[in-house]
Amino acid sequence: MKRIRIPRRTFLRGTLAGGIGVSIGLPLLEPMLNANGTALAQDGTLPRRFGVFFFGNGRGVEVAKWRPTGTGAGWTPSPLLAPLTELKDYISVVTGMNARLDESPQGHHRGSAAILSGYEFVTQPANNAPYRSTFQKPSVDQLVAAAVGSATPFKSLELATSSRVIKGEGTTIQYISHNGPDSPNPPEVEPGAVFDRLFAAGGGMTTQPTTPAVTDRLRELRGSVLDTVLVDLDAMHKRVGASDRVRLEQHTESIRAIERRLTTMPTAPAVQCDNPTRPGAIAGTSGKEPLAERLDAFGDLLTLAMSCDLTRSFTIQWSGSAGGPVFWQVGATRAHHDLSHDGAGAQDVIEKITIFTMEELAKMLVKFRDTPDGAGNLLDSLALMATSDTSDGEAHSVNDYPIVIAGKAGGALKHPGVYYHSNGEHTNKVLLTLLRGVGVQIAEIGEGNNTETEGATALEA
Predict the structure, then answer these.
(1) Which domains does the chain have, with CATH numbers?
(2) What is the per-residue pLDDT across 199-228, written as a single tens digit (0 to 9) for each?
(3) Beta bridge partners of 23
């Protein structure tokens, strides 16, 4: 029997009331792959993906509570990293590296620019702010997007769970994704808007609707997105084998589940703070940002986006550099940045925040691990870097940086993962390893004494 072929870029298409086009991408099905499920039948190797998960204000003061014990693949997660235990085979932890650059002592600015781009930031006139700067070079997610983004409907996705970010000190600490100086990629905070964008006309091949009427209409009819493509879906069921029919059913149920969640998900107040370092205590429930709920929804959306090859590069700003989210989930009543400067008495809460952050990151990574992708899963093809703007928020230190790497990057990264403690190497080594691992052809990264031409070989397969 002749084996049918289905192009990877196949979409199910339909039309909402009012003529609004909807397209839904497909997961990897057997007719899209070679006989072993290890490569695309028509386009060669399976795609590799890159992600950044950014949490502001560091890991906490006591480095011993962050550093794992043991070395290599035999490492044991520390108390702050314990939530990642289930994923240990897919996790590598790096400590002891420094993000020290040559100029400004501004810790949050310096750390953000270094770990997200590998270069020094550009100092700008303060304009009555404590300090102001912007990125000098593109952030690493945009280097990936430039290299592989043309193959997908979205070159990159930028997401954020908290809107309480520093807005008056330039783009460096307000945003994590940059194209270059004063050219940030603002993140989307509301999962519903990301859903609308992913399923807009052309499956993301056209830009997001810009008129309020179209956007509102998409939102109103979001629950019926799948119904519009039932004819194409039925035809696809008839073309594929039994195992792929199960995959299609799981895929459509995942979309239905997201639709149901977004229909009932409360919308948090869009708090925009000009000076979020002093927000004070929150009253009642009106100021409680649904950080975990947003990340949960983003995790589902990213699972679909990667499965359907809608994007291969994404960033998640869990909390901003020097940002002001109040982690009420662990009993905090003051902003995270404020707590980091409250001395020893606040460290218990800071540690609880770090553990909570790792818990929510782990939940998202489990979704990726449990989602089939060819002969493997999404974590097999992903290189995700979880990191911060400082190591110790109280001291604004950019030494002994907190770096967690998740995924295999298509076999470029070690599996099982390892613990590597460096003796003061620059964090650019990690960036170089990750970029090369997902297919960015780059000879070096950094400038001056911080230029690196060799990656972090301890992480490489």
Answers:
(1) 1-46+196-240 (no CATH), 48-190+267-459 (3.40.720.10)
(2) 764 443 333 333 444 444 444 444 456 666
(3) 13
In this structure, the number of other CB atoms found within 10 A of the CB of residue 275 comes to 11
Residue 404: which of 176, 64, 91, 139 has the closest Cα? 91
For β-strands 313-317 and 49-54, DSSP reports them as parallel
Output the pLDDT for position 36.
Answer: 57
Q: What is the per-residue pLDDT across 94-152, written as a single tens digit (0 to 9) for each?
A: 999 998 765 556 889 999 999 999 999 999 999 888 899 999 999 999 999 999 988 88
